[in-house]
Amino acid sequence: MDETLYGMMNIVGPIILLILLVWVVLRSRRKRGQTVETTRETEQGTRSAYAEEESRRREGTDDR
Questions:
Q1: Helix (H) or strand (E) holding 2
Q2: Residue among 10, 23, 25, 54 at smallest CA distance from 2
Q3: Which of 19, 21, 23, 17 is nearest to 9 (CA)?
Q4: Entry pTM
Q5: What is the pLDDT of residues 3-57, one digit of tens each?
Q6: CA 63 to CA 57: how far, in whole Å?
Q7: DSSP secondary-structure letter at 4?
Q8: CA separation, residue 59 to residues 46, 51, 54, 55 (Å)
Q9: For residue 44, what pLDDT is reported?
Q10: Which contacts qualify for 44-50: CB closer than 8 Å, 24 or more apart?
Q11: Which of 10, 26, 32, 60 is most exposed, with the fewest beta carbons within 10 Å of its own?
Q12: What pLDDT score does 50 carry?
């Protein structure tokens, strides 16, 4: 009985962990109801913020 339980833990345990890992990764990639357009807006905003910061750094007005 102990060998059977140990064998099941070695087989079923990693399978359950793999399923949970895949579920978490897929769930975190895009929030529920979030559209592709929202993602594009977020990426554009990030690029804009980085460009603004880079221009301030080049001008020397980044408070450093």
A1: helix 2-29
A2: 10
A3: 17
A4: 0.43
A5: 888 888 899 999 999 999 999 888 777 666 666 677 788 899 999 999 999 998 8
A6: 9
A7: H
A8: 20, 12, 9, 6
A9: 92
A10: none
A11: 32
A12: 94
